[in-house]
Amino acid sequence: MIQYKKLIKSFGTRTILKGIDLHIKAGEIVFILGTSGTGKSVLLKNTVGLMKPDSGEIWIDDENVTDFTEQQFLPVRKKCGMVFQHPALFDSLSIYENIAFGLRKHFVLPENEIKERVEQALSLVNLENVLTKRPGEISYGMQKRVSLARTVVLRPKVLLFDEPTTGLDPVTTNSVNSLIQNLSRKLNTTSMVVSHDMHCALKIADRIVVLDQGQIVDQGTPQELLQSQVPLVRDFLSEARDLL
Amino acid sequence: MKSGALFLNRLGEILLFLSEVLKTLWKRPCKLELVLEQVWHVTIQSFPTTAMAGFFVGGIMTVQFAMLVSEFGASAYLGGLATSATIREIGPMLIAFMLSGKVGAFTSAELGTMKVTEQIDAIRCLGADPIQEIILPRFLGIIISSFFLLTGGLMLSVIGGSTLGILFAGINPQEYVRHIPTILGFPSLLSGLVKCMSYALVLATICTFMGYFTTGGAKGVGRSVVSTSVLTMVTIVVFDWGTSFLGQLLMAWFAVG
């Protein structure tokens, strides 16, 4: 489904991704864990063409997208929806218009179908009665859900989540994590989740990939990771056990 | 040496950005209602400031010239001299400074916040072009409204000059107005309008550029706002010299012709 081959990305003299080799299979929920600044978000942004790698290749659905132009990336972005760290909603638009935005840009649909799909997407993230509100009128947790609805309304084959629970309280964190799991199963999507949260990764991931200093230091199923001897993974695991 | 290279680098980036905006305008123009919305917002937000600035700039010029011309017994020319100097030189520049602090700072802060909160990335992911969707309406809106605000401000500077001159410098109103057409000819008016247009272009380009390329969170937004104000003012002064110089050349050429 998604394959990274020897992916390298630098900013000035600092190399963030140092030759990432990774293969994400269709239908998997893969958690990318790592400390801040290890290149997790950079990996996601390279996937949808928001950043360009210095070298290496990115393959999506047997298509090499590494050197795609902005125009060529449009169909890729239609099938790979990204949920950002910030809700990134457009303040000047209502919630309805925020969710309909991508539908209007990517497809030519009649207004009644747009409305139907927007309502469906909102019910998938368990939100109602917010259509006419502006982003500033709802809570941060609700904004995160709207952001998720704005992505799933496009019915992407791949969902990319960039720290979806950052800044949320534990209750909302749990509900967003359940949403990620349910959406991936219900919509039959492939999901890549960038996170610091090992506790959640152990609960819902099919596979966990641990990044450190721009390189993959360990990967495997949650059960395999529990046996890991890599110090960073042990640190993450001990923190997760403290939460249990 | 290093700062010179940095300056040239920044200048190149701004010109590339401007060419990208103009290319988008040519190939994929934005919706007219988005531009009109921006024109409305900018004009409504900034008219009181520019009107007040224009009114008092005119007043200042009249009071300053009044002291000089009375020494030479040329008070009859006060209106013409003050109005011409205001429209050709000081008026557009000072009003543009006001606009850079208000419209420029607001726009770069708005775009900068959109950038650091990933709204611009989201626009790209949702299949839209951020230049077409958010930059172009602001760019055109600022140019159109700034041009009208500047020319409106200049008209008010003439009213301000005459009103404050009459009230506080004991100037005869008829005498003030009589020689305005003698000194303020078409070239002066044209020079003022060209300056207004070029300052509007400078302001729109710099504030959208600084906002669009903001990095580094809240601190980055602050840096963009400050850079917008400083860079706009410096560029306006440079453009003022450039347009004045060009104006002199054209006037000399017309005189010879």
Word description of this protein:
Chain A is α/β, with parallel strands linked by helices. Chain A has a single domain (2-243), classed as Rossmann fold (3-Layer(aba) Sandwich). In chain A, 41% of the residues lie in helices and 25% in strands. Chain A has a 6-stranded mixed beta sheet, sandwiched between helices. A 4-stranded antiparallel beta sheet of chain A has the order 2-1-4-5, with helices on one face. In chain A, helix 4 packs across helix 5 (140-152). The longest helix of chain A has 17 residues, at 170-186. Chain A starts with a strand and ends with a helix. Chain B has one domain. In chain B, 89% of the residues lie in helices and 0% in strands. By secondary structure, chain B is mainly α. Chain B is elongated, with a radius of gyration of 21 Å. Chain B has helices at 2-27, 32-71, 78-116, 119-125, 130-168, 173-178, 180-183, 186-212, 217-256. Chains A and B meet through helix 2 and helix 3 of A and helix 4 of B.
